[in-house]
Design a protein that fits this description.
This protein is 16% helix and 27% strand. It is α+β, with helices and mostly antiparallel strands. The protein has a single domain, classed as SpoA-like (Surface presentation of antigens (SPOA), Roll), CATH 2.30.330.10. The protein has a 3-stranded antiparallel beta sheet, with no helix packed on it. Strands 1-2 form a two-stranded antiparallel sheet.
Length: 70
């Protein structure tokens, strides 16, 4: 059997992949600001995003979209 030996329901080869760190991002919106506008932000400032309230958020893994949700 060798490399095909399983641990529970998971093949041993796959077990090696389970500890690889991934960057998971949940994005509610996105915008671009000039540095001047960014520096003028303070407590209570509101940043207008490109998405409307109630639109689904995006779930990204390593910068690639994999899902949308609420």
């Amino acid at each position: 059997m060798g490399a095909e030996t399983t641990t529970g329901d998971t093949p041993r080869n796959f077990e090696l992949l389970l500890d690889i760190p991934l960057e998971v991002t949940v994005e509610i919106g996105r915008t671009r600001l000039p540095l001047r506008a960014l520096l003028q932000l303070g407590a209570g400032s509101v940043i207008e995003l490109a998405k409307l309230a109630g639109e689904p958020l995006d779930v990204l893994v390593n910068g690639k979209p994999i899902a949308r949700g609420e």
